[in-house]
Structure formats: C-alpha cells, structure tokens
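Exercise 7 asks you to align residues with tokens for two separate proteins.
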Amino acid sequence: MASIEPSYDGPEAESIQQQSLNRWRAALSNAKTASQYRVSPSDLRGLLSRIPSFLDHIPNECKVIQGYSTWRNTDKCTLVAKQERPRRICLSHCYPVICKVSQSKNFQQWEKSLNNGLALMALGWAYILSASLAERQGLTLQYQTTADSSGPYTKQLQLEYATCHERTWWKSLISQGAGWKIVGRGSPWGLSIKDLNLEVVGQVDQSSSPPTAKQAASYLGRLCFAFDLGNQSSAGLAAAMSLPLHSAQKLWGSAQIELPALAMNLAAKTPKKQKFLPPEFQLISYYMTLSLSEWAIGPTLWSVFWEPQITCNFAGAWLGPIAAVLEPVLSNNDLELLAKVFSFTRAAPLWVGIALCGPSAITNCILPYLTKMFDYPFTLPSIDAAAWTGIPQSFLDDYYMDPCHDGTISRADVWRLRHDCHSEYEESAFLFTLPHGWSPFGRMKAEDVELEIRDHIHCSHHWEYAYWTWQPGSSTDTGFCKRDGTENCPVRTTELDIDRRDYGNLINYQVSKFATMSMFRWCSTQVERGFGGTIVERFRGHDNSRALSDKGIPDDFGYAGIENWLSTVADQSVESKTNSDETSTRHLEDESMGLTWDE
C-alpha cells in the first residue's frame, strides 16, 4: 500500500501563514499604542475557571502534595469516567529567588499613575503567599537581621500613616538578603534582596512577630490606597505568582529577577480605615494552587502560541510569523511591549507577571520554541491546566468526539481515544499527553484502528471536568466556578495594511516536520497500514532500546526530576544506545516525555 505523505506546503499553509501574520502584526500595532495592561483583579479572576482551592490544612512535615482530576462522560458509553495521572506540587524550595532593581526602561511608569510601587507589591504578595502556606502547615515565620541591612540609600519610603509594626514589615521586605523566613523551611516564594537601594523611614520594632497573611494583605492594601497605585497590586500578585516557575528553571542555585525601580513621586495620603484588604486576597487559596503548579502555569503561558484547528504539519506556518513579529521585541529586551502584545489573550495577566520580573530563562525560551520547536518541561500541554483555567492548549482539550462515519475516523479522535483508554494498552505511553498541542492531520480507516479502542470509534464522547482530588487525604474540589473565564479579546486587523512581502516566506518547514514527527512518534506502536515508515518507523515488540520507558517517567517533568530519573537508568542506556552523544542525549530527552525514536 502506498505511503501517506504529509503536506507541509501549498495553499493551506499559505493561508495559515497569512492569518497568523495578520493577527500578530495587529497585536503588535495595538500594543504600541496601548496605555493599559490587562492585569486587573477581574483579569486575574478570569484565570480561575475550575482551579481548586488550596488545602486549608496540610501536615507540617509535608514538602510535597499531589492530586488528580476526575472526568465524566455524558455520552451513553461504557466508559463513564476517567482520571488523569496524579500531579505533584512542591511546598518548599531550597534556594530563594535573588531580586534586584532593573536598570532597563521597562515599566518605569505604570499606565497613568505618578507613583510606581510595582516592586513593593510583588514583594508584599510573595510574603502573603508564603505566610498563607505557613499557616496552613502550622509553621512559624520570623524576621531576620541581615549583615548588609544598613545604608547608604538614595531612596526613602515615607510611611507616616503606618504603625510601627506595619513599617517593620515593609522594612523586612526590602532589607538586603532575606528579611523574613519560614522557620525550618524554604518558601516557594522566598526572596533574597539585592541592591533595592531603598529605606523605610520611621520607627521599627525588629523584635515583633511577623504579621499573618491577612494582616500583611491589609498592610499592602493600605499602601496601595495611600499612594494611589490602582491595579499595581494585581500586577504585583501576578509577578509573585511566577516565582515558583522561575525557581523551577534552575537545577541548582537561585533564579534571579529584576523588578522595576520604585518611584513615589506623590506623597502618601492617610487611609481612612485600618483594615484595607485588596480584593485579590479573598481568592488567595486559588492563586496559591495555580502558582505552585508550574506544570499548569507554564503551559497556560505557552497557550498564546497555540491555535485550534491548526494541524501538526502546518505548525511552522503558524509559528513562523509569530517569531518574525516577536524577534525584534525580544532582541531589544522590550518586555513591557511584549506584555502588551499578549494583551489580546486570556493568559495576559500571567505574561505581565513574567515581564515584570525582567529577562529570564522563561522569556529566553520563547524564540527557541517558535523557531526550532524546542520543548521544555514547563511548556508541555496539560489537560488539567486547560480545565483549571478554561484556556485550551492542545487538541486534546476538545472534549467532544465525532463518531466514525463513512468507514473513517479523524486521527485527532483516535489520538484522544488512545489517551482516554490508556489502561487498555500493555505499555503506559498513552497515559502521558503529547509534547505539543497541534492535532494530527487527516482521517484513517476504521479497520486500521487497534482493537484496544475500536469499540469506541462509534461513540460521541463528551468529557466534562468533574473535580480534583487532593492527596494526602481524599478531599475533592469542583473548582472556583463552573464557567469559563473571559474570552480572548478580538484583534482588529481591518485598518492595517499588512504586506507579507515585507517578511517574505515565513513558513518554518523544519518546525512543521518536527511537530509532525513528535505527534506520530507518540503512538509509533500503533501506526496504521500504509503509514509506517513515512514519518517515523513503526516500533515492533520490545527490545533493549525500549528499556528506558519501562523504568517510569518522573511525575513533575521538572529538570531535577528528570536528572534523578536518568541517573537510575544510566547503565542500561549505555548498553542500549550506540549512537553519537548528541543523538543519545536527544533520545533521552524525548523518552523522558513519553516519546520514542526508531532509527
């Protein structure tokens, strides 16, 4: 039977390229004239579609918890429910994030506000998140006196309205080094301050106890009101929420962020009430869950680059124009403009938080992903993250299935069935989702579908997220609400004169080919007749080269987890791999994500 060749070019690729270019050129044009950021309290709340509330009580000895999602099928089918694999959440981190003042022009002024307190908001929320976690575990916070806490300083923070305890708290946040800590534990939002060049004026009491999360939130709300900072509180929370993700990018040592320099040009006014809780604090339990789930917040960020209806063989046609538009922005380190470019997406508040933290490993991953389809542990699409936020990241997030007709079924539906019915297979590969969200192209004959799922090809599966189960224990949570968040903002393109000739041919064929290979390598054990050998070789039976997959795959896909896992199979990998060092390394990376290579 003749091979089936995927198409990477042609009129459809040209059309997709033009659509992508239109959207992202328009987004850039709109960003250059925008005066506001999409990071209000309501924008942040829009991320909480079905996110579970963080546990109220956690044993103090726990440094890791986990949970899993349960889904229900509303179709009349024997497959009535399914569970996704457990996902881990780390409650501590050994190294605090190093924080210093940015020297760039990014975010020197926030919208129309004359005062810029973004750094204070980020530092304050980092403490509030940490204090809330400590309270849930029965742990204690304490102030620390650092050796470098004396001046000289060129900037002062006048808090005439504040109490002594209030000033003490703010001083601890901006002191050199770590001004506070959770006793016996490293906080996931821990910070070590370097060169903020700021002094809190007035009496302090270093012997006093640190405030509770609620008290600290009140202090933050009072300062926000006193200096008329507006939605800088929401922006600071978005930045603080990104700290665990920054830390996860470092195998050893501390990640580093750069926050905008403080600029308080107008004197503070006195708050009319002592308790001034910011609206975001009422939802702190939900923001904690999202922030601590790097495997959820990462792919939610990366969802801005994915587009439904684009098949894997045209991924390069979609991503090529995005790379062309964003490359000058990233090369110029214009992260303020980058945050505005993403304003039309529902993930915009998270990108504002990333941008506020300055150049980082996260922003450095954007162009390699767009131009070479490099995949990183934190960018892997997550079905749970899509359900939590209401932001799809993959064709697997289309919860409806079209039944087989005319003797054929779409490959996308077959791929979904393989994941949904992963327990029917001898191997566990289909338990894990694909490294990219692009759907497989075309349809396949029903007779070529493997027996494990053939009983379901005539079904109309409709999956609905039911609830999240926390472990340890078995408490369940249906999530923040049973509605999706706000939709993407429409991007106006009609008034733009967009000429593709300015860019030339932007289709990245290598990206399209790699995305297609990754898609079909995921199920290389089940390639249909006439298709084996076209994209990837069909795997037949077990051999030593497959031994790595039998060892299991780390749950968190984190760098440290992958390193530890690889060390347990190093001896066997040496025996089974005879390729070059470069090829062997790539094999290990792919197999750690459930992919397999056939030479």
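Second protein for Exercise 7:
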Amino acid sequence: MKVRSIGPLGDYLREQRRNAELSLRQLADLAGVSNPYLSQIERGVRKPSAEVLQQLAKALRVSAEVLYVRAGLLDPTDGDGEQDISVEMAIHADPILSVRQKRVLLDIYSSFRREADEEETSEPERESTTQNRAVRHARQED
C-alpha cells in the first residue's frame, strides 16, 4: 500500500462540507468530532483515523472508501473495487454537480454494479441449464 499525502484529504473534506452547505461546527457535530480537530484535518495538520473518516463520510453522505483513498489508508488500485473507487471519486470530485445529483448518480451506479454482480453470479447457472437442455434434447432425438 502506498502512503499518500493528507493534504488533498483536507481540501476534499472542505469542498464536500461547502457543497453540503455545512459550517465547520455543523460537520464536527454531525461527525462527533471537535471543531478544532476537524479544522486541523481540513488544513492537513492532523491525520484522522479510519473511524473518524467513516464518521465524516456518514455525516457528509459520501463514500468512506473515497476518504480512505484520499487519506492514504487505501490504495485505489488494491483489490477488486478499483473501478468502483475511481468512479466514486470522479463523481465526488465533480465541482459542478450538487450534493443531491452526486447521491443520485452514486445510487444509480451502485444499482448497476449490483445487477452486474448478480448477472455474473447467475451466468454459470444459466450456462448449466442451457447445457442440460441441450443434452436432454439430444437424448430425445436418439
């Protein structure tokens, strides 16, 4: 896992907080952290724990994984979720979309991913069923 600078995390948090039209104090209250601590995170002075990042993600209604990547706790190229994280990051990073638009896009993307995963899981079942029908059909012709 690569270690990344925490500077972009603070900038990203500030941008998301402003997009959500929350003051520093409001976000701190929602996330259950102190006002000064959140200010230090936004300025890149402090590096938050995964737990604090999760609380911030919940308060901002953004993906915790995106915050983990921004904080250097998770490498976007690790694991099977590489594409998920990069798509989510792109949506979250778009300065033109509203918070509501971002949520809708993320919901749609997640539903498409779930459908694709379900189709991928059921694909071998369909192939097996098709093969069984072909075998039965061939036996009936004999």
